[in-house]
UniProtKB/TrEMBL annotation:
This is CDP-alcohol phosphatidyltransferase family protein. Gene3D superfamilies: 1.20.120.1760. Keywords: Membrane, Transmembrane, Transmembrane helix. It holds the Pfam family CDP-OH_P_transf.
Amino acid sequence: MKNIPPQNPAPHNAGNKPVSFESTLKSSDTEEQIDIWFYRPIGFQIARFCASVGIRPNPVTIVSIFFGVGAGILFYYQELWINVIGMLSLIFANSLDSADGQLARMTNDKSRLGRILDGAAGDFWFISIHIAICLRSMNEGWTEWIWVWGVLAGASHVIQSAMADYYRNVHLFFIKGTSGSELDNTRDLRAEYNKLSWESNFGAKFIARTYLNYTSLQEKFSPRLQQLLALVQSRYANRLPQRLVDSFREKNKPLMKYTNIVQFNTRVIFLFLWLFIDQTWIYFFFDMFILNPILIYMIVSQEKVSGFFYKKISSENINEFQTV
């Protein structure tokens, strides 16, 4: 996705009409109800304020990192009132995380750096949270082995978030095209990475390498989907047939609820529960033994959908999109 710097960021569209709340959402197919009811309205107001005073999305994301990391630090303490402050801090961090994307769509201030920074923000939050839980658990009598569970749960979280984000962008690519999606691929990213020099562009090359690894991880977990995307892009270079768009949306939309389950809201609701009952160690096992099976089901289901459409398109029976 190209970096499109704003000229005069303001919460108005080309027709000088106020930007609507709905226009700052990615898609009703991919939005979670808790986000629509709670985080998106708060984020919209923050985004409107930021646009009015000229604040760009990336600084909003950076501020969210401080609040999210701060929340993790506050979860180290066993005093519930301190934990509650941490909960409120994490909720505000996620509101800012919602606001940065809404602000980017509101002002057309989109960039790959912003997307990378947005994804990294959540990683910083949960690294802080995992470290705090490990240290807290050791104070409660756990041995150093708790760090093994913390690392395994962290790795699970990375894969869950990466695949959920990827599948949502694939869905947006099919229903909105490249303009409505942030779908990237390792081929293009590697070409851009190779153009950078470690001597002259160390920071940019490091970020590019990190994002290339992230995208490579997503692609390795979705081989049939990669076949489908390659076929679609070679067969329909300009525009997808509307019948394909409608059929893909119908069959893929039910999978979007699983991408939401393994993301922020579900894990945080249960994290808060474990904090209230002072059993934070359960969070690691919830991540591994509850959310990972959902991740596996999500991947298997998406691969099944991808295999179905690949078979139909490759056999040129484009009008036969009926059942998987």
